Amino acid sequence: MSLLKIDNISIEFDNRVNKKEKVKVLSDINLEVGEGEIVAVVGESGCGKTTLGKLIVGIHKQTKGKILYKGKDISKLKRAEFKDYRLGVQMVHQDSFAALNPNRTIFQSLSMPLLQHKIAKNKAEAEKILKEYFAEVGLVPQEQFLYKYPHQLSGGQRQRILLARALSVKPKLIVADEPVSMVDVSLRISLIDLMTKMNKKYNISFVYITHDLATARYIAKNGRLVVMYLGKIIELNNIYDAIDHPKHPYFHALLAAVPQSVGKRSDGGSKELPLRTLDMPSIINPPSGCKFHTRCPYYTEKCEKEEPELLQYKGGYVACHHVERIEREREKVKEVI
User: Fold this and answer.
1) What's the burial of 21, exposed, middle or buried (CB within 10 Å: 0-12/13-18/19+)?
2) How many helices (H) and strands (E) does the chain have?
3) How far apart, in whole angstroms, are the C-alpha atoms of residue 28 and residue 10?
4) For the ABC transporter domain, which residue ranges apply (predicted)?
5) pLDDT digit string (tens) for 312-337?
């Protein structure tokens, strides 16, 4: 049984321009996360990655479908069971400064959930718990960080504090939304190493949301990769097969655009995939059929008329009408190379 199962989820928001219409931000999402598994979610800005993360932790509610946690529909959980879900699924936000109350010390902010959920009986016990997790994330001596305000700490230190906050309630799953994008490059690997350490030590599952393919591959070495485009999952596979042998034209183009490839390319890496246009369609008025057809070099009329399903293909899943033809063409290119 999966720890978390997202079953045919869609979510719509109000259109601020035309209040009579809705904007579908996520459409027919299906995803499972196992215990101790790391799943990386990649895609361009506006593809729905962060919305998916907020949906998982309960910040947003779906319009259609259901989320199962430990086999139970979270919309039907009793109060005590829902509390277990909220504690068991935590989020590490991209903006560490916005995620911490600037008017409270770190101890005041982090001790509150421990006391509220009776994980700690009093402030002294809360301090003991927090010191333990501060040591885990490399914030020592702990007193030097516990009683400071967020603005007195660096971005890397605040990000470690957010991770310690998530760990302090002993979660089963952490959704990490672009956790290293606002941190200096020199600190990114150390933070990712910290998350993989927590994954192995506590068997915590991670949903790692990013636009950076290099960090996605680094953290999800033994996990899976989810590729999103305009609110849809278009490819899902284990991390190595996904990056070394991309199936969907969009993901192939995404990999080809990386200055130094994070993996082999199915065309030998000789050329970038020439797109029909570089303009990304609006999620407010998305194209009919396959959402990528306006940019796809393999476009046919079928792409415009019929939306492809996410179907199993060679050990992974891909949503493309012409995946077999594309595979054959790439094999020919490799033979020439």
Assistant:
1) exposed
2) 12, 12
3) 5
4) 4-255
5) 999 999 999 999 988 888 776 665 54
